Amino acid sequence: MATMRLDKFLKVSRIIKRRTLAKEVADKGRIHINGQQAKASSNVKVGDELTILFGQKKVVVRVEKLQDSTKKEDAGSMFVLLKEERVGEES
């Protein structure tokens, strides 16, 4: 079964626009793969569920396919958005 580095998947799928930013988010412990905390170097495969915390927003996606590169309009087909919710972190 094919796998891809988490930071590369996030960039190619355009969930996070830049790989350096994807690495930063992962290194801060804000990304989980199937409930396990993930690093930028963690591998993702088709069927994995990613939970990503972006500031006040929590996004859950399922990996649908892996591609080394993609056009902007095809990037959305690499994952399915399962849930998007605001995290109640009042400041």
TrEMBL record:
InterPro entries (alphabetical): RqcP, S4_RNA-bd, S4_RNA-bd_sf
Residue ranges annotated for the RNA-binding S4 domain, each copy included: 4-65
Keyword presence, tRNA-binding: yes
Superkingdom, taxonomy of origin: Bacteria
Annotated keywords: Protein biosynthesis, RNA-binding, rRNA-binding, Stress response, tRNA-binding
Assembly mode: Associates with stalled 50S ribosomal subunits. Binds to RqcH, 23S rRNA and the P-site tRNA. Does not require RqcH for association with 50S subunits.
Function, as annotated: Key component of the ribosome quality control system (RQC), a ribosome-associated complex that mediates the extraction of incompletely synthesized nascent chains from stalled ribosomes and their subsequent degradation. RqcH recruits Ala-charged tRNA, and with RqcP directs the elongation of stalled nascent chains on 50S ribosomal subunits, leading to non-templated C-terminal alanine extensions (Ala tail). The Ala tail promotes nascent chain degradation. RqcP is associated with the translocation-like movement of the peptidyl-tRNA from the A-site into the P-site.
Family: Belongs to the RqcP family.
Full protein name: RQC P-site tRNA stabilizing factor
Annotated organism of origin: Bacillus chungangensis
Lineage of origin: Bacteria, Bacillati, Bacillota, Bacilli, Bacillales
